[in-house]
Design brief:
The protein has 20 helices and no strands. By secondary structure, the chain is mainly alpha-helical.
Amino acid sequence: MIKESLTGLNKAAILLMCLGEEATARVFQELSDKEVKELSKTMATIDHVPDKVKESVFSQYRQSQEQLSGHFFRGNEFAKKAIRATNEGERTEVLLEQYVSDTESRSLETISMMNPNMVADLLEKEHPQMVALVLSTQKSEHASKILTLLPEDMQSDVVYRIANLEKVSVGILDDIEDALQREIGKSTETEVKEVGGIDKVIDLLSSLNPNLNGEILNALEETDGKLAEQIRRKIFSFENLIALDGNSLQMILREINNESLALALKTASHELKEKLFDNMSTRAADMIRDDLEALGPVRLSEVEAMQQSIVKIAMKLEEEGKFLLGDNEKHVLV
């Protein structure tokens, strides 16, 4: 039923419903997911539009067209897309980071300006969930410094909680801001934003010393082995072995038997296979090629499990200081 007093959302829903499904679908393509969700929920409450209401909505729409003629833009999104479209690699990333930094205020700005030691002292007695939330709002470099200063038995728990964070309500951030004001006597502004998640953990761990990185992942594996595996896959995948030099690959190959390597190579790229073959004896390479040809159908899960076992070997060797791993892009471990 339609009420006499209509909100802007009601009017938009009525207008689109009267225009028909095809027109509405085209409009939805231009809206955000949130806008589509709100409009569709409103449409679901409407089962009849009186002619008088329809005429009023269309009349107001025509008036708005005349008063607001011209072009409308989502300025913030337009600017971001324009910067990304420059497609100049590192320069594009720097420009985008500068734009976001200048135009979008970040949550818990007070923490971002504090010395890591002070932040760690402030957080070490807090619940790990609170600590995870705070670190999720910070730049990875700053957050990683704070993380290393927290008690060792707290670090993996915090990383686990960051990985499982997604969205935070205004109320929670406001509560944290209030607590910060009481503790350090400074006022800040907050905004709702998405925080946490596995990508945040990847950035954070990639800023750490490899030894600490490995220790945290090993401890996390005891809490949630599946999550630890997801993080390892993102930090360094089996295909990333192709980026290693010959000496590094030979060290890894010495830890793997032929049967295991053949299984892991079942779904590997031609380039990776050839690079590995180039770093073993001709006889060994021929044997593994024969094993691959003789290998019948196997479960993908078995292949991936073996690939991850080899990745773990590579990461263990890195922790021992034998070489450095990286994906040639963002997550280089130093």
